[in-house]
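Dear colleagues,

As part of the handover before I leave the project, I'm documenting each prediction I ran so the next person doesn't have to rerun anything. This entry is a single chain, and its sequence is reproduced below.
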Amino acid sequence: MEFTIRPMKPSDIPEVFAIDKASAALYWPERSYHFEVEQNEASRPFVAVGSDGEILGFIVFWLIIDEAHLANFAVRESARLHGIGRALLLHGLKSCHDGGARVSFLEVRAGNAAARHLYDASGYHTESIRKQYYQDNHEDALLMNLDPEDYEKLMKEETK
């Protein structure tokens, strides 16, 4: 599956919102994406776009000084298992790294095996657990970190 990654634009938001709503029990309101794209200077929002122009996935990082916080991330169900998630993750991490990030943080549902596998394979490790974090089903959240050494290693591997 061919795709490119580019910054998210306001015109992408209806499709991004639809992907988020279809992917997450607790999805962001559509207005949150407008804030991320149009107002939040810390935001690094990107989309993966198929050769036909369809939005296949999105990622939103917040770059805060030297920290890249993964705020939201989803791939359209029909486009999963084609490397889009990994490409979005690496693109966002590279953008944040270029902006000065040296560590990264995220929260993920304990039961989201596919996401956990992607994060583990990218060098993140579980730092702690937030018990019953998610409001919809009281599932635990795993707090995962990408430490400076692993972040640098990932950036060097991806630029080869």
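The mean pLDDT is 94. Residues 84-98 form the longest helix (15 residues).

All the best with the project,
I.
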